[in-house]
From TrEMBL:
Residues at the active site: E269
Top-rank lineage group of the source organism: Eukaryota
UniProt similarity note: Belongs to the aldehyde dehydrogenase family.
GO BP annotation list: polyamine catabolic process
Name of the featured protein: Putative aldehyde dehydrogenase-like protein
Keyword NAD: yes
Record key words, sorted: NAD, Oxidoreductase
UniProt xrefs under InterPro entries: Ald_DH/histidinol_DH, Ald_DH_C, Ald_DH_CS_GLU, Ald_DH_N, Aldehyde_DH_dom
UniProt-recorded Gene Ontology molecular function terms: aldehyde dehydrogenase (NAD+) activity
PROSITE patterns assigned: ALDEHYDE_DEHYDR_GLU
Length: 500
């Protein structure tokens, strides 16, 4: 075991924010490292330089974290708490995160590359918003008394699922952690949270706040480690009761297979290729604004990105011209610590290359590629300029596959039936958006789109109080809203005989 002093380092962000960064595995409320299990180096996507290395968990680290979570699950310090008391702990954590807004926003931006203005106004406050929302449910999630007549009484208890393995991606490190932790803690579970290799820093910092908030040891354990080693060890671990995963569909399928060993409960939030449909009668300014935000925000690294724009014949040319002009004006690339920046670098060189390979394949197959900011890409950083593929047909790979970058396809359609058929001809079913002034058509489309979420006259306007998730190969189960609790409790039935 290394000395505790080696498990933290002093970091300074380009805006002068300084903090002590924990580097260990957070197990049983302590930062530890497991000798021989290695570490992971995280990179600043804007400077392309290493920031620091954090401890990685191998099989021994995972075992230790799971054992801590298992112990905590039945320890009276957690098990005997009322929902109200769990809610208080969560509320305290939400407040501590708020107190650390400047530091956490700087960490998120340094590690992920997203603009500081966004980390400050959205990612960090959203963590607290989600924790508070689920803290509110912690004492408002009772079982039922079931009336079965006078000779018997029956009631249900909502009990924790148990030890939850939660595997999160790098596009919203804090937000994805909150979506997982909120409902799990609300329902009295214990957690091993595995962070993404690219963005380990913000949640390690929050781990310290979890201890400060007063959570008993082992209730929340936060580890890093590669997906293939730590992720796989968690997903297949016999002492884990539930796995919750957000990431690619391909990895989600592997996780599901691994979870089958002991029939873990499972929720998955995976990929998407969501359509955004603009009808002739739409408010064009509104459609252009949301279409841009819906695919270009967060460097296009959004599972619900509405990346397939389907535009009706009558407004197609007008829409494409306006969309390109709006993108050229709005998608300002630059230093994520600069207030003027709308789009920072992609999270990693691997992601940049992946997105660029889609752009190259589109060019090779003759798709028209428009990159308004191509001349203004910063000289360093993993940047991809915002890219619009026009007149794309449904057979093209950029139309069918998730690119996860600032890339939109635009395609033409004639009738509503045709638009709907194209929307639904996808293995994905995460989200969809429709722009029209015709109320009946808006609701028809909302009903018939094969998607977990539909936006009418907006896009990616998610809300903590509203369920989030997909159908088809976009996932299983829901996060957020009251629905988000379902994956985190088992219903037990109790039958009480009232006769002699
Ligand atoms: P990924 O799905 O492989 O990684 C997500 C998380 O899963 C990370 O914590 C990773 O360590 C873990 N993981 C990886 N392999 C695992 C395994 N065998 N067992 C258990 N856990 C494992 O995604 P990656 O490679 O970072 O990105 C590739 C593509 O995935 C992106 O281009 C994008 O299309 C998609 N993606 C989708 C996200 C979403 O929000 N739906 C988020 C991140 C990526
Ligand atoms: Mg990083």
């Amino acid at each position: 075991m290394l000395l505790a002093s080696a498990l933290e380092t002093e970091l300074t962000a380009p805006n002068g924010t300084r903090w002590t960064q924990p580097l260990g595995l957070f197990i049983d409320n302590e930062f530890v490292t497991i000798p021989g299990e290695g570490d992971i180096t995280t990179v600043n996507p804007y400077t392309e330089e290493d920031i620091c290395s954090v401890s990685a968990a191998g099989p021994a680290g995972v075992d230790r974290a799971v054992a801590a979570a298992r112990r905590a699950l039945s320890d009276p310090s957690w098990k005997q708490l009322s929902g109200t008391e769990r809610g208080h702990l969560m509320t305290r954590l939400a407040a501590l995160v708020e107190d650390n807004l400047d530091t956490l926003a700087a960490i998120e931006t340094l590690d992920n590359g997203k603009p500081l203005s966004v980390s400050r106004s959205w990612d960090v406050p959203h963590f607290s918003e989600v924790l508070r929302y689920y803290a509110g449910f912690a004492d408002k999630n009772p079982g039922q008394v079931v009336d079965v007549g006078p000779s018997k009484m029956a009631y249900t208890l909502k009990q924790p699922v148990g030890v939850c393995a939660q595997i999160i991606p790098w596009n919203y490190p804090l937000a994805m952690a909150a979506w997982k932790l909120g409902p799990a803690l609300c329902c009295g579970n214990t957690v091993v949270l595995k962070l993404a290799e690219q963005t380990p820093l913000s949640m390690l910092y929050v781990a310290r706040l979890i201890r400060e908030a007063g959570f008993p040891p082992g209730v929340v354990n936060v580890i890093n480690g590669s997906g293939a080693v730590a992720g796989a060890a968690l997903a297949s671990h016999d002492d884990v009761n539930k796995v919750a995963f957000t990431g690619s569909t391909a990895t989600g399928k592997q996780v599901m297979r691994m979870a089958a060993g002991n029939l873990k409960a499972i929720t998955l939030e995976t990929g998407g290729k969501s359509p955004l449909v603009v009808f002739d009668d739409a408010d064009m300014d509104q459609a252009v604004r949301w279409a841009h935000e819906g695919v270009m925000a967060n460097q296009g690294q959004v599972c619900t990105a509405t990346s397939r724009l389907l535009v009706q014949d009558g407004v197609y040319d007008d829409f494409v011209a306006r969309f390109k002009a709006y993108t050229a004006r709005t998608s300002v690339l630059g230093d994520p610590f600069d207030e003027a920046t709308y789009q920072g670098p992609q999270v990693s060189d691997a992601q940049r290359r992946r997105v660029q390979s889609y752009i190259a394949s589109a060019r090779d197959s003759g798709v028209a590629v428009f990159q308004p900011e191509a001349g203004a890409v910063p000289w360093r950083g993993f940047f991809v300029p915002p890219t619009v593929f026009a007149d794309v047909d449904a057979s093209s790979s950029v139309f069918r596959e998730e690119i996860f970058g600032p890339c939109a396809t635009v395609s033409r359609f004639g009738s509503e039936e045709e638009a709907l058929a194209v929307c639904n001809a996808s293995r994905y079913g995460l989200a969809g958006a429709v722009f029209t002034r015709d109320l009946a058509r808006a609701h028809r489309m909302a009903r018939d789109m094969e998607a977990g979420m539909v936006w009418v006259n907006s896009s990616n306007d998610s809300d903590v109080r509203v369920p989030f998730g997909g159908v088809k190969e976009s996932g299983l189960g829901r996060e957020l809203g009251e629905e988000g609790l379902r994956g985190y409790y088992n219903v037990k039935a109790v039958h009480v005989n009232l006769t002699g």
